[in-house]
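Quick start: read one record
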Amino acid sequence: MIIRNPEEDYFHNIGNSGGYEWSYFDGLSNDGLWGFTAIWFKGCPMSPHYTKEIDYSFLNGSHINPEDFSAFSFSLYYKGVRKFWCLNEANSSHSTFTNDSPNVSFNENILTCKVIKLGKEFEIEIHSSSATGTKRVAGRISLSFPDLDLKTIANTSNNLDDNHNWVPANLVGSFNLNLHLYTSFGLKFNDETIDFSGRSYHDRNYGLTPLHKLDVDWFWGRYIGDEYSLVYFKILSKEKKEIEFSQLLLFKNHELLYQSKNFDFIMSHSKKSWTLKYPSRILISNDDIKVEVNESYKPESGPFYHRFVSDFKIYFKNNLVSGKGITEFLKPKRLGIKSFRPFIKFRVRRT
């Protein structure tokens, strides 16, 4: 995993069969009850259609254009219950990617970025339906991110596998969300207005080789607060220690206060969902910092991925910071398990 310059926040020219890229946003309300994720994909590695075609291409030597498996995913949840979720996929004619800015669109789901003094502002327009068609969401999310000087962490990875890359684009920000959630009950139709604001996060990942060929455990986590914010990223491998990856970043008032790639990462209180084991508690520590992460509730779960709202406690130089944050666990190799594909296809709308 290579850490790229944050200025690489644009879609790269990835034409490899099995290549992938996603632009990721999430937000958590100030009270920790509401949350959202919005993700644009070029070559969606979570798509069973894409992983199937990749496997075929490796057997017969054919070429696949990742743009023909572009996608948009949106999730909205409250108190650990998912109120809306979609993963809509289509060929290249449904998407517009730019290679000089973060701007992107998938059908009527549009991301635009404006550079302002000392930061960036993003506008997300959403018009999407669930796979069953019984729910539809429409509205806008406005996000604001101050500039963070993260150029110093570029290329500081403890492994230099450039097949997989992380762009820490805008890690600490704020947002305002205004959406309409339409739900049909037979002949009845319900329109729910949803408004909330809070702290936001944005990054980007891209790879030149299939993600589901990677036999590792990926852990992400972040706490975004008024004064202090923390981001961790950990990749573990049982067989290939050389591809492991560690990064811990602590910010104070939008300035990078502390960085380390050397820390203990202790997992405990194992649980299981969709036959996928995961730790409900994580302890991150070294001589300088200690971070305790405890699962609060799990709004998203599947055979290869879990997402949590978690309780964070951060101990640093006699300071204690605590609050709600986001944690994620992905086991990429399970994306390629053929027996899971029928269940995932049911949740994906491909047009």
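The helical segments are 48-60, 341-345.
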